[in-house]
Amino acid sequence: MTAPLTPPPPPHERSAQGSWQPPAAAPGAEAPGSQQAEYAEYAHGWYGQDGPGMKTEVREAGVVALAVALGGVLLGVLWWWLAPHVPLVGDVVDGNWVVYLKDTEGEQAVGVDGTFTLLGLGFGVASALVVFLLRRRGGVPLVVGLALGGLLGSLLAWRLGVWLGPAEDVVAHAREVGKGVTFSAPLKLGAKGALLAWPLAALVLHLGLTALFGPRDPEPEFEHGAYPSQPAA
């Protein structure tokens, strides 16, 4: 004759003996909390490298644009000094003063535009090199500031060269020097596209230097050659 089976303890006795414990994880498995923390750290390291901040980049871009634009003063002086002079001659026809080119086949007017274009390209190369050496990290605001500064510098150089050059009133100038006397025409930029030489040269060169020698974003580190698992929603 066998002994009677002992009945299981009632629920209230089981709760009094101790609280319920969750089952232990397998030896090689990671807890969901650690996976979530690992994924958050990975996402921050991969997407959180945004440089010094947008406000700082915009402020630096403004400083670059202002500094580059002030270089237009030097460009204007050089253009006025190096540009060829276009000779004009005044005459009196039927009691009225007329002004015409002394050398109708001369290429001085083309040389004026060419001088400004070459100087603009040189200033674009110089400004791009200086900006890249001072701040190797790129960024859209910096590139926009460099191009905008080059355009403003070209406009400043154009107006300064015209102001420094001969008088724009050629009839009054012809009357002043006398009939048949050669004088120089006002400094004029015939091809307005030359104003884009500086910003385009600076933009292209700076982008090329940044692509070749700029800092690289660090590659993400993966464990066992795989991305960390994303926690389920």
UniProtKB/TrEMBL annotation:
UniProt biased composition (Low complexity): 21-34
Spans annotated as Disordered: 1-34
Ranges of biased composition (kind: Pro residues): 1-10
Transmembrane portions of the chain: 63-82, 116-134, 141-160, 195-214
Superkingdom field: Bacteria
Keywords, sorted A to Z: Membrane, Transmembrane, Transmembrane helix
Name the UniProt record assigns to this protein: AAA family ATPase
Species of the source: Streptomyces olindensis
